[in-house]
């Protein structure tokens, strides 16, 4: 059994995106200057990004993170599982590639910085947890649906076996009439 169900993992991702959106509007440096982020940045030899709290780009990033959160929240509230069966593996692949690029492509400082790496790394982790949960839930659903089919097959085989054991010899009409005549005499 997975540690989180897919629904709880998706709610965790929505909360993560809403938190980032809030801090983009409030003070993004509270995330970028966090001691855990600084330690991760130095240990991975990534350049540290510092942003002005009055930067105009933070507003558009806040809106984009808010829209990413709502793009998961609405299908989640509608229980649209097919959407998540298709989007989570694609998202996991894209964020894994972006995480790799943000670490390895040292000449491009637009991608090679702590903010991009941290966001993409968290997305890979969250989407991996969600993907594992979705996969396990699909396997359980498959087992449940096949369990009833297997039970029906076994029941049918048991009925056929019982019928074969209780074979009643077939008699013709003439034999029945002869038995009736014998009983009358």
TrEMBL record:
Superkingdom in the source lineage: Eukaryota
TM helices/strands, residue ranges: 54-76, 88-105, 111-134
Keywords, sorted A to Z: Membrane, Transmembrane, Transmembrane helix
InterPro entries reported in the protein's UniProt record: Incr_loss_mito_DNA_1
Signal sequence, start to end: none
Protein name: Protein ILM1
Organism: Zygosaccharomyces mellis
């Amino acid at each position: 059994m997975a540690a989180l169900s897919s629904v709880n993992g998706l709610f965790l991702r929505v909360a993560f995106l809403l938190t980032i959106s809030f801090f983009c509007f409030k003070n993004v440096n509270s995330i970028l200057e966090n001691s855990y982020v600084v330690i991760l940045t130095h240990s991975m030899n990534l350049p540290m990004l510092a942003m002005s709290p009055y930067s105009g780009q933070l507003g558009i990033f806040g809106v984009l993170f808010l829209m990413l959160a709502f793009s998961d929240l609405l299908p989640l509230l509608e229980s649209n599982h097919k959407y998540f069966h298709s989007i989570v593996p694609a998202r996991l692949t894209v964020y894994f590639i972006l995480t790799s690029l943000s670490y390895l492509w040292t000449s491009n400082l637009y991608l090679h910085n702590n903010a991009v790496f941290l966001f993409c790394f968290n997305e890979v982790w969250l989407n991996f947890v969600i993907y594992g949960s979705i996969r396990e839930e699909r396997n359980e659903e498959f087992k449940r649906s096949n369990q009833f089919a297997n039970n029906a097959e076994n029941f049918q085989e048991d009925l056929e076996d019982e019928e074969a054991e209780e074979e009643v010899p077939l008699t013709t009409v003439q034999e029945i009439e002869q038995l009736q005549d014998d009983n009358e005499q």
